[in-house]
Amino acid sequence: xxxxxxxxHELPRVNLITLPTPLEKAVNLSREYGVELYVKRDxxxxxxxxxxxxxxxxFIFGEVLSKGYNVVITRGSYxxxxxxxxxxxxxxxxxxVYIVTYPPRAGVEKLVQGNIxxxxxxxxxxxxxxxxxxxxxxxxxxxxxxxxxxFKPYIIPVYSVNGPATISCSPSTMSKGxxxxxxxxxxxxxxxxxxxxxxxxxxxx
Length: 205
Prior knowledge:
Layout lengths: L1 H9 L12 E3 L1 H7 L4 E3 L12 H14 L4 E7 L3 H12 L3 E7 L11 H9 L2 E4 L6 H14 L4 E4 L6 H5 L3 H4 L15 E5 L5 E5 L1
Parallel strand pairs: 3-4, 3-6, 4-5
Antiparallel strand pairs: 1-2, 2-8, 7-8
């Protein structure tokens, strides 16, 4: 186990987060269930309004930069938080970013606000397709085209689900070392609430 932890910490990683992120007591839930319940506030980060996806991007961009990739390609629906954060991280390191985007479902109107507005502010190249089924094919098409122009593109899958991203959700990167120093908690249980694929949320009780 310790060997695995050391290997994780030896992996290339960039710094996108000021740790630790806050640990907030869920006062009402604690009172209702008779336990001391805390929620890890990974929505409080500096990078483009934050979110737990930033933890995955630290390892993904560690690999991107260590292996000399100079363009990032990813995909997501119009208002994707994954895409927003990927674009922000890419621009932070001076990389071009291509976004393949599509309606989250039929009939959804595209409004230039929220994440869509932020893509433009970040200077991302936005390519729109009719729906999600065509997105992966378009990413490969963009990759081939960019390689033909002499670039070295890196494809980040939807929800950034790849090897480096999965490592970011391990206990050694998510829990004990990220507790605020001024909170003294004898943790009995750590609960990881999974959302899409490997996107974690953390509760401590």
